[in-house]
Amino acid sequence: MNYAHFTVAYWCLLVAALLPIGCAALAKWGMFSVSPRQGGYDNHNPRAWLARQTDWRARANSAQANTFEALPFFFAAVIIAHQLQAVQVRLDVFAFVFVVLRIAYVIMYVADMAKSRSALWALALLVNIGILFLGYR
């Protein structure tokens, strides 16, 4: 009997799904112990608080939004590649590379390295397109 197993590509889906949460945590880093009256994190109105942030905190929040935007295509590409019976090792490698590129993208975004960030975004998009076509015959 053949049992389904959790592939590396599926683990990459989990990591990619958690990446926006990591970006949000980064944007809020160190502000939980500061009173909201003094500019600290306001859990009663978190979106308004995030909207008022500047510099790296604002960029971390923007990275969060972009990582959410990238999820549907990545999820669909991996699932379609699995359904089309793409070579598993290739799919795993492509998915892993996508996640690494997206993590590097977040780092470049927060560090305000716009050109590097944009290049990583484009590379991740190309890898994602590659994932989609891995099972194409």
| SSE class | mainly alpha
- The helix fraction, in percent, is over 70%
CATH topology assignment: Four Helix Bundle (Hemerythrin (Met), subunit A)
| CATH level-4 homologous superfamily | Membrane associated eicosanoid/glutathione metabolism-like domain
Residue stretches low in confidence (pLDDT < 50, at least 5 long) are none
Strand content: under 5%
What average pLDDT do the residues reach? 92
Report on this model:
The protein is built from five helices and no strands. The model has no long low-confidence stretch (mean pLDDT 92). 72% of the residues lie in helices and 0% in strands. The protein has a single domain, classed as Membrane associated eicosanoid/glutathione metabolism-like domain (Four Helix Bundle (Hemerythrin (Met), subunit A), Up-down Bundle), CATH 1.20.120.550. Helix 1 packs parallel to helix 4 (88-110) and helix 4 (88-110) packs antiparallel against helix 5 (114-133). The chain is mainly alpha-helical and 137 residues long. It starts with 7 loop residues before the first helix and ends with a helix. The longest helix has 29 residues, at 55-83.
